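Listing S7. Sequence submitted for prediction.
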Amino acid sequence: MNDYRVPAEDIGFVLFDVLQAPRQLADLPAMADADEALMRQLLDEMARFIDGEIAPLNRAGDEIGARWHDGAVTMPPGFREAYQAFWQAGWPALSADPADGGQGLPAALDAALYESLSAANHGWTMAPGLLHGAYECLKHHGSEALKSQYLAKIATGEWLATMCLTEPHAGSDLGLCSTRAVPQADGTFQLNGTKIFISGGEHDLTDNIVHLVLARLPDAPPGPKGLSLFLVPKFYADGARSAVACERIEEKMGLHGSPTCVMRFDDARGWLVGQPGKGLAAMFVMMNAARLHVALQGIGLLSAAWQKADAYAHERRQMRAPGASQTSAIIEHPAMRRILDTQRAWIDGSRVIAYQTALELDIARQHPDGARRQRAERWCALVTPVLKAACTHQAFHGGSDCLQVFGGHGYVREWGIEQHVRDARVAMIYEGTNEIQAIDLLVRKVLADGGDAWCALLADLQAQSTGDAAQALQALQQATRALAARCAADATLAYHVADDYLRASAIALLGWAWTQISAAAPAAARWQAPARAFSDRVLPEFAMRLAIVGQMQPANA
């Protein structure tokens, strides 16, 4: 099947017609030059680069994969050359501060870039996927000495970075981490321990790799409050190699082009990032950035699966469609139309929410009005877990639906659709499982203030919506208030309903998104079929999820 093609027209429609991104950014002094003409030019260049350089490497990345031998990892053919072209063209530095070698452009462009990269070649995109989070982490928490040596290299993508959290006995419960950091007389630290599931822990894409590592000081208390963050490079400034070794790479269901490494630290010399015992706070800057990127992966992977399924449905002729007099392309069959239109409803609506989140990130950092910055911070905190969980869930399950369009051909490698399903599955797990995202949303954020902040956001969106979408947003507010009262009497209840509550929230947000799309393109044929699919096939799930939330009782009740 044909390689993925960046849907530049759809992306531009969302950014400029639906969200009017230049108008939203007009009050930010640093974005004064980011007008529509410049943004459209960058989108066109992005599409040319991804379509020409990255998408054609996807199949080799999956079939050949990354190879480990004696501690070294060789990436699939073409990956290094493509990455060198990528960073030298300035793509990793798109939204980084010009003072650090970046271009200072809107985060929404960065969102469009990483959505499209993930769709074109998820395995390759895993390499630069953590750069933005590592940059933000070091910029906000690193010492001046560390920033002077590493920040620009990370901002520009000349050096890649990792996030070393997980250990064999410590997955989601990071408080169990046991990697040790012993202070030395010269102010450095010696790190000892093993980290697993480290994306890009070893590779040949760049001349250096910067590891950000959670570890425990000798006098640290147990649990998460005892964790500190450290920087350990693969190579030091004098060219000496650190005592960090890749013991092996995992054999995985998907993402064969991305080496998932087991990394061993044997008296590896590193430096403290931020304050002792504040490692998780520093690392969460990186993790929150990564969660938005994972949501964009979900959108991109579903978009790639939809492209393949739609192309196949137009080409494949089988039996007569209802009402037809002769054999039809299967796109004419209602069952296939249902699948394709429903998944497009998720792609289009999710893209609106994700790009608005990227706009809110810039507003939160730069808007001169403090109240507007607070509203932007509220949006990012509350919407990011919804996006991460809902978009990655849909990438896998919706991608599986797209495979169904191919029938038996979808189950064999030749057509390429099965790779999207395999690659998408891990996105529901990493950067905090989707169950953890649901707990984060409901327990830590919504219920923390009795639902006030979340209901205020929903009310804002309700005022911008009409019809069934507005009613759903109102119903979610009412359900949130009722749930907050029930949870006040039984704190365990929230954990039982969190997943259904997040799913209901995602559909309500999609309703707002489709209101905005419909207002921007009231008569455009391109958007009518997915709009109907949202109303007829996606929105009805909202009532079911809300009913589960309202009726659920704790297991021990």
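Caption to Listing S7: primary sequence and predicted structure tokens for the chain studied. Residues 8-141 form a domain with the Butyryl-Coa Dehydrogenase, subunit A; domain 1 fold (CATH 1.10.540.10). The radius of gyration is 23 Å.
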